[in-house]
Design a protein that fits this description.
Helix content is about 40%, strand content about 15%. The chain is built from nine helices and nine strands.
Length: about 290
């Protein structure tokens, strides 16, 4: 795919804010029309962001699909808004069907949305089986379902890119408990499972002109992290980067011929963006 206007159609989940919104805008600037999905369609909606059973974070977060859609259109792209609840299979099925209908085809799938409820940041001994099943349904089963629904048409057309947003939490042991700068077992293991998807797809579709990528963003400071007070401990442990960094790397994966070398591999966004200078002014010069 080139970088001329109206390259095709990208379907981005979790696009109401954070990495998903920034990725949608980066792809709009690269010439894509967008199908954007999340559970927050309009501003002011209240949802549960309590990543641990010890927390109570039911509130309205900044950002919505309607706001993202307006920003996409400002950048010259068309935008179709699709409500998506990662916990509801019928919602996921409906979102995949709506994405396919919106502009005739989906050329790029960015599996970015992630479950943010209880169990995500709970310690092993505090987890319930129901919490673990919920985390896996949202972070593994339903992203897989989106691939199953959208990949056949990509294979038939002979083009497409699938980007799964993964996590370093799925690649290593936590350095501390979840409440002290680490992460929960349920979240980390779900992301470890998702990491395996790109390689499995490549093995099963060897030679097919569709690419499968993992993009690991590193610590990105999101609205939900700040709301839960998780940002301070994690910043101290891991540093951090703005949402524009992983967004620029997804754009690179989708549009740059050099991305073919990363097929069925995991690309770490922050060092890659720094090496290629994908985000002007980041990282800021030391001084």
């Amino acid at each position: 795919m080139g970088s001329q206007a109206r390259n095709g159609v990208a379907f981005v989940t979790g696009a109401s804010r954070g990495i998903g919104r920034a990725t949608s805008l980066a792809l709009a600037e690269a010439g894509f029309d967008l199908v954007i999905a999340a559970r927050t369609v309009a501003g002011g909606e209240v949802h549960d962001y309590s990543a641990s059973a010890r927390l109570d974070v039911r509130r309205a977060m900044p950002g919505s699909l309607d706001e993202t859609a307006a920003l996409v259109r400002e950048r010259g792209g068309q935008a179709a808004v699709v409500k998506l609840d990662l916990l509801d299979r019928s919602s996921v099925e409906a979102a995949a069907a709506a994405a396919s209908r919106a502009f005739g085809a989906v050329d790029v799938l960015v599996n970015n949305a992630v479950y943010q409820g209880p169990g995500t940041m709970d310690a092993v001994m505090d987890l319930t089986p129901e919490q673990v099943e919920t985390v896996y349904r949202a972070n593994v089963v339903h992203p897989l379902l989106l691939v199953q629904r959208l990949l056949p048409a990509m294979l038939e057309r002979g083009r497409g890119v699938i980007v799964n947003v993964v996590s370093a939490a799925g690649m290593s042991d936590p350095p501390a408990p979840p409440d002290a700068g680490g992460w929960g077992f349920a979240y980390g293991s779900s992301k470890a499972a998702l990491i395996r998807l790109a390689g499995a797809l490549r093995a099963e579709h060897a030679g097919a002109p569709v690419r499968f990528h993992n993009m690991e963003p590193g610590l990105i400071l999101t609205e939900s992290m700040k709301a839960q007070g998780l940002d301070a401990a994690m910043i101290e442990q891991w540093g951090g980067a703005p949402v524009e960094v992983p967004a620029a790397v997804v754009r690179w994966l989708v549009t740059d011929p050099g991305a073919a070398a990363w097929d069925a591999r995991t690309l770490h966004a922050q060092p890659h963006a720094q090496e290629l200078g994908l985000v002007p002014g980041w990282p800021p010069a030391a001084g």
